# Entry
Amino acid sequence: MLTNLIRDPSNSLDLRYGTSQNASTSSRFLVFANGRSEWIEKYSSIPDDLSLAADTGFMTFDHRGQGASGGARAWIDSYDTYATDMKKIIDTAIAGKPYNLMCHSMGGLISLYGIMKGLIAPRCLVLSSPLLGMPNKPLPANIAYHTASLLTDLFMGHVHTGGGRYWRPPFEENVLTHSVERYEIIQNSPYPVPSPTFEWVRASYRATQFAHAPENIAKLRIPILILCGTEEKVVDPAVIPQWVGKAKAAGVDVDFHWIQGGYHELLVESKPILTPVLEIIRRWFDKRGFPL
# Structure
């Protein structure tokens, strides 16, 4: 993976992105948007996992506030900022070539937000465990939102909620993956990120509400594949099929699959779960006429 930095001239903030070795000669791209607290190298196996063709480039990036990108850790003022960052990186890294977009968790919400706002225009979209609803623990989502909004208005938006910490629990207690090896990679992240800030909570809740608005869903004109594990415990799994129902009612070409036994991180799961996930993704791309 070749990594580069983009400088945001408005605030001198660097955004890091990575491309595959064949990027300069690729005719099309698979762009990957990762989730909260993740980083480029965590998903460096995707080109091999999906057996990308020789003329398909791969590009992924670190959201501001995590990985090697600049910005306050675990803080954002609005998903407009995330989506604008994503547009800048895509415009720079793939030079106007067509691309398919694949996302995980928070990356899925950012991508939907960006598409609905008209900032990015992928040919199709794959969402793994998308953040379409804030979790209802330790507080119900609506109470957490109002609390976070109040504290942000009281100039405490950069304060971390305490809902998560730098360290990860033992493998036996984790809710991310069944793979011991891949969980060790997560535990040993070179870019640990603290719990979300109150302003991140407010911005994320508002973005989920935006993504569920019928008038915004109606703007989607690309095929969408959504995958969610039956053992999902990080995002709210109940709202995902609800969103799918709204999308289908609006005429969106959307396919949804429950992944039996899957935890949150379906793309870094153990082989018995990851293998069928990858096969579903490959078949879906072929069926939609967008070979990898």
In short: Strands lie at 2-8, 13-19, 28-33, 56-61, 99-104, 125-128, 224-229, 254-259. The longest strand covers residues 2-8. The chain has one domain: 2-287.
